[in-house]
Each structure stands twice: as structure tokens, then as C-alpha cells.
Amino acid sequence: MNRPGSIYEAIGGADAIHRIVQAFYKRVGVHPKLIPIFPEDLTETARKQTLFLTQFFGGPPLFSEERGHPMMRRRHLPFEITPTRRDAWLECMNEALEEAEIEDPYRTAIFEKLTLTANHMMNTPE
Asked: What is the chain's percent helix, strand, coil content, to nearest 5?
């Protein structure tokens, strides 16, 4: 069930999340800083991201239902996430939000929330 007044609901629900994820992984798959830490086939990664973003922005708790508590930092520890890779990830996400036509104030709110998350995922110095 969607939380009334959630970002998920405000941006258009599942369709908007799908547009964001598709635009995002189109960029990740060719970004020289990100290619080393992502699988060649991004299908499953994109599917998990869809589950996570749906839940993260107030939609149905799809990620937790399938995979348990998100524990995002723990799940990302095997990957060397440097400040440069964080910045590359955020660059791809910012462009994806633009391509997916997510309007303000939601675009800014999403980007701020994901910036906090990306900062928390860093685990390796340059």
C-alpha cells in the first residue's frame, strides 16, 4: 500500500520509478568509473533498484518483502565505493531524474535523499 502524500505517489508511482531506473542504468552501464563495480548484465541490479526505490520513496515495501531489511551499507560493502564513484553514481542519477521528467520539488527531494544514501555507502578512500 502506498503512503498517502509520499514521493512515490506524487511522482506517479511505479511508472515513474521504472523510468528513473531505466534512465539510470542506461548511464551506469557505460560510465567508466562505475563499470568496474557493476555486473555486465544490469537486469537483476535494475530490478532490485526498482524494488528499493519503490519502498524508499513511500510505495509498497517490495524490497523488504522479497529481500528483508534493506541494510544498504552492508549490502554494498563488497564494492569499493570511493568519493569519485559516489559522485559518478549521483551524476547518473541526476541525469536519470531529468530524463524521467521528475519535476520539482520532488526531483530535489529525491536527489537530496539519494545524496545522503550515497554518502553513507562510501567505504573506500580514493
From this structure: 65, 0, 35
